[in-house]
Write a sequence for this structure.
């Protein structure tokens, strides 16, 4: 994640988020939050340190105290430039000093602290050694709603990212597919995402013919032929917020079976979308989409969950999956993306980002979900 892929928020916005996080932790009976570099830190402070930093960098949020960012001295000048920096106290440490002892002083000897899911085990183990009286809970388990429920400004950014991905699809459907490698179409899709404002492209899946039966097939050398189904699934970050959409196109006239399977997935996607309303459990979205595919006899070919959350990353909790009882709340944003994958033959996936409204759901993608025929 580069600085230019960060969202346009102010120190005041980040101050509000950090206060909300500390309050949520204390409401849950927790002693505070320890936030490692990654999406939680970006969301709370706007700070994204270099990816390969093994030195301890940790935001410490404890109820009733000002936020403190423990940061290696050599990174401190960059940290001070982050949009959220004015809302923080920087506490820097130099090589040769013990950053865990420093952090331990900020935490106190006991209590359960929330830790970002992606914090390095090495850092957590060293903190445990420094503070044997403390315990730790995962961010997602302890505070599942904190990043999952988006505010109005975040929703606007997600909608803009969705519209940009849609614009990329409208463009790609006009190009010639026959005789071109998947990788060429993928490269063009990435160009289009950037042209429409993305600063980061996370994936451009182009899965033609039998490759479409592999949901995570990356674009490769296969030359696309007349008669192929082609699964397109692409997204990234625009102004710090994610896009992720899939459409399945056909090169030339499809067979009856191809039409039938595409229509089945379209109806499953519609059913998943219709299940979105406040109070419904995440798993109900999965069940609604899956039921359509199972009733048609294709249940064994729908081999993944129905959806995942999206925000400052393109894949995050909550998950639309059997067993996830988390109720939907207005402002949550996630994908609804059922698929059918017929091994050795073809696949179909249709994916929209959806947000929960007061009385249902709203799609953040608007391109046609009918099968598009390409050349
Ligand atoms: Zn075909
Ligand atoms: Zn996708
Ligand atoms: Zn997705």
């Amino acid at each position: 994640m580069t600085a230019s892929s960060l969202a346009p928020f102010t120190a005041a916005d980040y101050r509000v988020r950090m206060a909300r996080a500390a309050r949520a932790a204390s409401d849950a009976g927790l002693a505070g939050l320890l936030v490692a570099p990654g999406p939680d830190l970006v969301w709370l402070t706007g700070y994204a340190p270099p990816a390969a930093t093994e030195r301890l960098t940790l935001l410490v949020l404890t109820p009733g105290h000002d936020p403190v960012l423990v940061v290696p001295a050599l990174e401190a000048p960059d940290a001070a430039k982050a949009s959220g920096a004015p809302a923080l106290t920087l506490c820097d440490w130099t090589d040769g000093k013990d950053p865990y002892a420093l952090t331990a002083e900020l935490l106190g000897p006991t209590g359960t602290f929330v830790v970002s899911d992606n914090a390095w085990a090495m850092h957590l183990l060293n903190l445990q050694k420094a503070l044997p009286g403390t315990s730790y809970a995962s961010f997602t388990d302890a505070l599942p709603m904190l990043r999952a429920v988006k505010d109005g400004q975040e929703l606007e950014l997600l909608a803009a990212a969705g519209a940009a991905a849609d614009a990329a699809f409208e463009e790609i459907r006009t190009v010639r597919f026959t005789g071109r490698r998947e990788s060429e179409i993928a490269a063009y899709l990435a160009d289009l995402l950037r042209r429409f404002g993305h600063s980061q492209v996370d994936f451009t899946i182009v899965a033609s013919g039998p490759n479409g039966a592999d949901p995570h097939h990356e674009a490769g050398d296969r030359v696309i032929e007349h008669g192929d189904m082609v699964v397109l699934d692409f997204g990234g970050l625009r102004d710090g917020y994610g896009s992720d959409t899939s459409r399945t196109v056909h090169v030339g006239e499809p067979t009856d079976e191809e039409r039938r399977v595409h229509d089945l997935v379209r109806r499953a996607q519609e059913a998943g979308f219709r299940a979105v309303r406040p109070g419904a459990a995440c798993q109900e979205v999965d069940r609604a989409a899956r039921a359509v595919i199972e009733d048609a006899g294709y249940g064994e070919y729908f081999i993944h969950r129905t959806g995942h959350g999206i925000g400052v990353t393109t894949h995050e909790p909550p998950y639309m999956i059997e067993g996830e009882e988390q109720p939907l709340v207005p402002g949550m944003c996630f994908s609804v993306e059922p698929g059918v994958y017929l091994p050795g033959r073809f696949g179909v996936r249709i994916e929209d980002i959806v947000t929960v409204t007061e009385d249902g759901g709203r799609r953040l993608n608007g391109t046609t979900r009918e099968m598009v025929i390409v050349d």
Q: What stands out?
A: The CA atoms of residues 269 and 276 lie 11 Å apart.
